[in-house]
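Narrative summary of target 7.
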Amino acid sequence: MSHKFALKSERVVLPHKIGPATILIDNTRIDSILDHDTPLDVPITDVGRDVIMPGLIDIHVHLNDPGRDWEGFASGTQAAVAGGITTVVDMPLNSSPVTTNLPAWTEKAKAMHNNIWSNCALHAGVTPDSLDQLNTLFDLGCVAGKAFMVDSGIDEFGMADEVTLRQAMKILAHRNRPLLAHAELALGDGQIQGDTRQFANYVASRPDAWEVEAIKLLIKLCRETGCAIHVVHLATAAALPDLREARAAGLPITVETCPHYLYFSADQIPDGATAYKCSPPIRSAANKEALWEALFAGDIDLIASDHSPCDPILKQLDTGDFQTAWGGISALQLSLPIMYTELRQRITDEESRLRSLSTWLTQKPAAVLGFTDFGQIQAGMDADLVIWNPEQSFTVKGETLYHRHKLTPYEGETLYGQVQHTIVNGRFAYQNQTLGEAHGYRIDNHD
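Modeled conformation, tokenized:
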């Protein structure tokens, strides 16, 4: 049965312009882009001046399913669509088992079945023990390999040393898949010197040099193997000169950073506030500004949440001990308003703000992973859209988020950019801030 309807707005973010338009949707796809006042014999919803943008694509999400109750496909993808994210890519660690072989992938697929509200893809784990499984995982649809160049904190997800990385990258290059790398090399024991409640001491325990040296190694291996490299969650601007030089030389290297590195700075984080702990750590205000400059210059390609929740008890909130607290920022639902709130202070031109958001949160993530059906509003693309109000502000209350655990460092922050509706594959997955079977649409899609 055909399912046709249209959406119209005075602000539609199209590939080459932002302005009034009507989007005709036929089942799961965008049929055509029409003039704003085109008469049609299908239901038309006029959203006024609310922005219609391509659905966000978050290529770095820890849903921790199966085996842990830290998040889950159901709660995590509900949070995603409530934040305008229509496609997430799940990381291979923090689930049990970790996604490094066929049996683990099978368990992951079972956990996904009939439990996801957004499109969802998987990364394959790159560890010393998974090299002979990578081709199988790619045959099953995994879209990239993910390696940790430092202790992952998960015993069964082993660190990838230079030998392992070189071997994996040869396989990845042959399969035309990128390597996503947690780029830190442990140049010390990682132990906090002095008071373990002081955030500055935690930052000093994982200095910029850890990232810089890891990225130097990745550049070297990229040059050797031809494998595309994607540096995840870049936290230090000190690595940018090496990255610029390598990219200028034509090496296939892309870079992401995260909203928390662009919103917070180390000097504003209270001692004992372990909700802010992540690795690499949030760094100085000057470093934050340098990351923003790199984003605007195109030296950083995209934004990903690195949503990495855990049971709040593991955050050591009672002791405020950064040494023993689990690392990871929980904010999947908030990426769009966090970024727009910062952009309001940095760019006066509205069209430039919207264009930047669309580039960093949709087009570039799609390009890095080769998602040809996502990331733009044009005929033939999947009908994955977010409708949101840039002028509407709200105060973050963890209890209202769809994350399984409500702890977030953004608690109490005032953000701009309220998501009104999210459409996934032509169906409303989030509507009027209400998720449920009456308005929602579950997707059984493991590609």
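Confidence is low (pLDDT under 50) at residues 434-447.
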